[in-house]
Amino acid sequence: MAQLSPHAFVAKWRSVTVKERSGYQEHFIDLCHLVGHPTPLEDDPVGTRYAFEAGAGKQQGGQGWADVWKRGFFAWEYKGKHANLDRAYQQLLQYRESLQNPPLLVVSDMATIQIHTNFTNTVKQMTVLTLDDLLTPDGLQRLRDLFWHPDAFRATQTTELVTQQAAREFAQLATLQRRYGHDPQRTAHFLIRLLFCLFAEDSGLLPNQVFAKLIKATRSRAPLFTEQLGQLFAAMNCGGFFAMEDIPHFDGRLFDNAEVLPLDSESMAILQRVSELDWSSIEPSILGTLFERSLDPAKRSQLGAHYTSRDDILLIIEPVLMAPLRRRWAAVAQQARELAVQRDAARGNQAKRLQNELQGLLQGFADEIAATRVLDPACGSGNFLFVALKQMLDLEKEVISLAQDLAAGGFFPRVSPEQLYGIEINEYAHELAQVTVWIGYIQWLRDNGFGQPAEPILKPLDTIQRMDAILAYDETGQPVEPAWPAADVIVGNPPFLGGKRLRSELGDTYVETIFVLYKTRVPHEADLVIYWFERARALIEQGQVKRTGLLATQAIRGGANRKVLERIKASGDIFMAWSDRPWIVEGAAVRVSMIGFDQGIETIRTLDGLSVASINANLTTHLDLTKAQRLLENMGIAFMGDTKGGAFDLTPDQAVHMLNAPLNPNGRPNSDVVRPWLNGKDVTARPRGMFIIDFGVDMSEADAALYEEPFAYVEREVKPERINNKRAAYRDRWWIHVESRPALRQALNATHRFIVTPRVAKHRLFAWASRETLPDSRLYVFCRDDDYFFGILHSQVHEVWSLATSSRHGVGNDPTYNNSTCFETFPLPWPPGHEPEGDARVEAIARAARRLVELRNNWLNPEGASEAELKQRTLTNLYNQRPTWLANAHRTLDEAVLAAYGWPVDLSDEAILARLLALNLERAGNHGDG
């Protein structure tokens, strides 16, 4: 391989003035010799991975060419000496995908080489090498890296890190503004303007670093900065002249006036720091979320928390919005290629007709994409809308690229922010959503070689409305469902607020109003997100929307929430679902379900990323357990435990003190109202020996006061909170637990002990509790005291059923037991109370259950164990370890239970579920359902 010295190379090419086509291959070959790298022909004679004149559209039959291409390294475009290299870079951006998106995009003439990074999710950088640079060790090393080590150009900062840093700095600015008493909304509007100025400057929309120069020049003169910034805002409003520079017309209501809030020296220092960041590389898919947290005082605590990523959002955007467009595009692209072949074989008028047909086909499909309206009815700060916009723009670019490859003409992208619609009630998020979308759009145009939007650069996004999405009032003051903007597709992440928290978060008046407004469609117990699902379902049923993809917590799969999925299945169908995914909501990690649904037109269905024939309302496939009915025979046995609604609980020491107190004025001991108390932790971990003050379900205040010390405790610890409760029953009877469960207490009167299971637990565990104990609402209680019943509940048969019919809870994704779905639908071997007396099968189950409990108790409380050892001996730890003796005990129990059903002992879980469902439907048919 020939070698060339730097001085020889520079001497040869310094005076060359030939045109690009005449000299670029020789120039590139000399560069190869300069760094000791093989030429294209030497390294790849076939030209499949390293070549001159690489077909930029070769994957599509192409006509565009890159001057040099090395797969996985670079695409290189040459221009004549002193030509506009920016234009060459724009060319590369337009067909980089056809060249498999190399990490480096290089443009050069014979004297200058510009190396642009094209790595995913990193800050973009440009390195310039002149002929003089090649005479230096550093410059020559950069050239070697270009050929041998492209990763050497990768920026260390990701776009996410830059965006996070920018948000943190702006949070400090917002804090300083509030310190001086500025209105939060005016502050947010002003800071969003500053944010956009920084982005516009680094993106080349504001010329010649005019904003950074202003900050630097007035760094220690804040009043002068304020005065000059007002003039810049005025110029950006309509276009004009500022600081010897022509300022484009921005408008978009962001610069609707020249108001500037005063800044102090500390604020100016922050502005100086943030102006040094690369704002052109901020990440729009998280920009709005992070800046909303920095500007909204209510969300400042979430600033360092996690956020939803673009990849997560794509799990909804791709199947719901893009899948039909991509299928349509595959057919259009194939038709276009066939037309191009026919055109190339034709002559005269026929060729012209085919050319017009080809152009009309491709431009027509681009128009289809641009006509697709996307609505996010809870858009927040715009992350779903931006990701939708980017995906549509990327698809339209494929159309434009194919049009160029097939010589069918080129056109500017028609997809724009104006086809995005949003509803958002939060004023900070509403304004940020508009700016986020515009920033993302401008970035996309720049990064894909399409320049910038025509002036005015920002157009008002009236399509994003600030309003309540589920409640409005007509001109007479009557509550109505607000009109949603017309759209083809609805996507989004509506607010997650559990049904039990509606009143405390939204107020009684609001909640009662939506209950009345949606009374026949949404159960009162449903979570807030269900109202968005129902609104979208109704719009699909009415033919006003084609497809919807929304998020909810996993609770949507069960209970009252699932009713909306059953309605969706009745009026249309679910075509896509993720039943269980981690997600970030307002900085907190949760588990969610994602659901895509339509009128029943979509034939391709996926569940958890896999193709399935159908998706049930509980987001399962195959066996549809949502058909299971509540059985009358199971009613009145299982109950949720008592809900105290205040600090009624006592430590062992507090309880002992009260229990040892003298008799009360009524002659009764405190043990009447001070009872042992049990919650979920007492079952899964070690019993804590807690007690609770319990005045029953209807004791009068006068009678309760006769128990002097317990009453005084409740009056001191509970009353101050309860008298402010919004619900009159809780407020006026502050000494009584908020949900004292009279039916549970009555059922327990017939037992000498009872069975409990934690509502939420990693393992489905059952344990005995004594009759005098009061169970907490974190437990479900079974009012039976026989070992047979305990054995049925703790068997594989019931566990399989309860897991399949339960919802999931929390980041740990633990099963949540529910009496109505998990137990009241569960068919026991015989209906409760109808077990055959003296039957050997019943006794075998009871015997196995007693043995299981005996072995567990021996392990939990061995003689001579230290306190530290006892601390580790919990039911959760035991079932985590599942030693052989425990597995054997459960196997004996399971075999006895299966024998009672008359089923084989080697049934799979799916087979057990199928038999239980059949038995459930048989029993429901015979006796009616609940």
UniProtKB/TrEMBL annotation:
tRNA-binding keyword on record: no
Domain MmeI-like DNA-methyltransferase, chain residue ranges per copy: 361-599
Biological process annotations from GO: methylation
Enzyme class: transferase
Keywords attached to this entry: Methyltransferase, Transferase
Gene3D superfamilies in alphabetical order: Vaccinia Virus protein VP39
InterPro entries in the cross-refs: DNA_methylase_N6_adenine_CS, MmeI_hel, MmeI_Mtase, N4_N6_ade-DNA_methylase, SAM-dependent_MTases_sf
Organism superkingdom: Bacteria
E.C. code: 2.1.1.72
Annotated protein name in UniProt: site-specific DNA-methyltransferase (adenine-specific)
Organism: Candidatus Chloroploca asiatica
